[in-house]
Amino acid sequence: FQNDLIFADSIYGNIQFNRNAITDTDIETATRVAQAEFIYEKKDDFSYIMAQRGMNLSGGQKQRVLIARAVAGKPDIMVLDDASSALDYKTDMNMRKSLKKELQETTMIIIAQRISSLRDSDLILLIEDGKILASGTHDELMKSSSMYQEIAFYQMGGEQK
Fold it and tell me: What is the C-alpha separation between 65 and 78, in angstroms, rounded?
């Protein structure tokens, strides 16, 4: 979601994205999963008109609308490329829990720089300059990769879990 594609249309239209098979229930579920409750605070909630490229939303709000769009489509595979970079830790954590619960049959490929976004992944690849330096779960990498340990230590404020 680094190159967000948001149209000058309603929030509903941006999430539905011309996929007529997507129901109101799908959109409401996707909104909840994406932690996009801010929509209900807008004057017209789902009818609220978004500016071209979402200029009238914050970065985190745009990311959550785009994630809701992806979730509403019930994909077999979802690629999230730094999708939560503009989200605070708590929102990111809640969204990851919801994604895991609601999209159990979806293969998720998450590209992130924050270890907290990857911590519960089945497989983490530590990549530098296009080369895989290490792979494993968070716990495995904490034991086997000094580079991963260093990144984790720095990002988690010294926490060694």
Answer: 15
